[in-house]
């Protein structure tokens, strides 16, 4: 599959908004009136699905991308890749931990494969950008493809080699291929943030354009309602 080269650096010029928190005592001020209620799914129902974990910048954007993909049942925003226990948004977003903003993807392997999710991951962000994605800078926004077993690791590494052999990107891929350890679910107000906050400046200027670029290049991967 040919992955289109997106003008990611243009995102910097669009807005000064950022996924990073402002110097405020509480993050609740970031959340507008909830227009979309987060649907709680019974954990037992999710047990029948497989999981995949990725980090590729602000998790608001990444969650929205994977939720648009057919075969994906649920996506949670959270933190992974570090060693600190029970990190908070403020700690991660200010670079006070070794975690990255990440997503937990529950998917039906009969409808979408792990290989296809890896394609979605690489095709929806810039894997050549070190510790940065769009206007967000810092190791907490680095690119990581997590694997839970040797088979998943091979899928990721083989796909990286394929991308490199086809010269899809002008710069070297810097994505970390990392064994999955623990995922810490983010605070509730981060879940479905794009749906809940359509008028947020970051969502309008960064997240939605990123999602739309993905949709344009992966039409066959989309849920019917995402078209």
Automatic annotation (TrEMBL):
InterPro entries: Met_Sox_Rdtase_MsrA_dom, Met_Sox_Rdtase_MsrA_sf
The keyword Oxidoreductase belongs to this UniProt entry's keyword annotation: yes
Any GO molecular function: L-methionine:thioredoxin-disulfide S-oxidoreductase activity
Active site residues according to the UniProt entry: 58
Keyword Lipid metabolism: no
Record key words, sorted: Oxidoreductase, Signal
Reactions catalysed, as given in the entry: L-methionyl-[protein] + [thioredoxin]-disulfide + H2O = L-methionyl-(S)-S-oxide-[protein] + [thioredoxin]-dithiol; [thioredoxin]-disulfide + L-methionine + H2O = L-methionine (S)-S-oxide + [thioredoxin]-dithiol
Top EC category: oxidoreductase
Residues covered by the Peptide methionine sulphoxide reductase MsrA domain: 51-202
EC number: 1.8.4.11
Signal sequence, renumbered to the chain: 1-21
PANTHER family: PEPTIDE METHIONINE SULFOXIDE REDUCTASE, PEPTIDE METHIONINE SULFOXIDE REDUCTASE MSRA 2
UniProt record similarity statement: Belongs to the MsrA Met sulfoxide reductase family.
Function: Has an important function as a repair enzyme for proteins that have been inactivated by oxidation. Catalyzes the reversible oxidation-reduction of methionine sulfoxide in proteins to methionine.
Protein name per UniProt: Peptide methionine sulfoxide reductase MsrA
Native species: Flagellimonas hymeniacidonis
């Amino acid at each position: 599959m040919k992955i289109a080269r997106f003008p990611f650096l243009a995102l910097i010029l669009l807005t000064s908004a950022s996924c990073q928190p402002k110097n405020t005592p509480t993050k609740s001020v970031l959340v507008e009136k909830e227009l979309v209620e987060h649907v709680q799914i019974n954990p037992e129902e999710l047990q029948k699905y497989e999981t995949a974990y990725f980090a590729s910048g602000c998790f608001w954007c990444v969650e929205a991308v994977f939720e648009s993909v057919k075969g994906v049942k649920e996506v949670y925003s959270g933190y992974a890749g570090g060693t600190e226990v029970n990190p908070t948004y403020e700690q991660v977003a200010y670079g006070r931990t070794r975690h990255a903003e990440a997503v937990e993807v529950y998917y039906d392997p009969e409808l979408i494969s792990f290989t296809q999710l890896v394609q979605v991951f690489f095709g929806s962000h810039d894997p050549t950008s070190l510790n940065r994605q769009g206007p967000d800078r810092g190791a907490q926004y680095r690119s990581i493809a997590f694997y839970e077993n040797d088979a998943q690791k091979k899928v990721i590494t083989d796909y990286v080699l394929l991308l490199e052999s086809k010269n899809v990107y002008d710069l070297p891929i810097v994505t970390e291929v990392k064994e999955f350890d623990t995922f810490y679910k983010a605070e509730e107000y981060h879940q479905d943030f794009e749906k809940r906050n359509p008028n947020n400046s970051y969502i309008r200027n960064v997240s939605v354009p990123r999602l739309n670029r993905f949709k344009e290049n992966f039409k066959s991967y989309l849920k019917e309602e995402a078209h």
